[in-house]
Amino acid sequence: MKYEAVIGLEVHVELKTNTKLFCGCRNEFGKKPNTLVCPVCAGMPGTLPRLNKEAVNLAIKAGIGLNCKINKFSRFDRKNYYYPDLPKGYQTTQYEMPLCTDGYIDIGGRKIGIERIHLEEDAGKLIHEEDKTFVDFNRSGVPLIEIVSRPDIRSGEEAALYLKKLRGILLFTGVSDCKMNEGSMRVDVNVSVRPKGLSFFGAKTEIKNINSFQYTQEAIGYEINRHIELYENGKTPENETRRYDEKSKKTYTMRAKEDSSLYMYLPDTELVPLDISEEEIDEIRKKMPLLPEEREKMYVKEHGLSDFDCENILQEVHFAEYFEEAAKLSKDAKNSANLLITQIFSLLESDKVIKIKPLRLAEVSNLMTDEVINSSTAKKLLEKLWEEDFDVENYVKENKLFQINEKDVLSRYIDEAMEENQKIVDDYRKGKKKALKALTGIVMAKTRGRANPRLLNTLLNEKLG
Question: In degrees, to the nearest 5, what angle opens at C-alpha 143 toward C-alphas 138 and 148?
Answer without folding.
Answer: 130
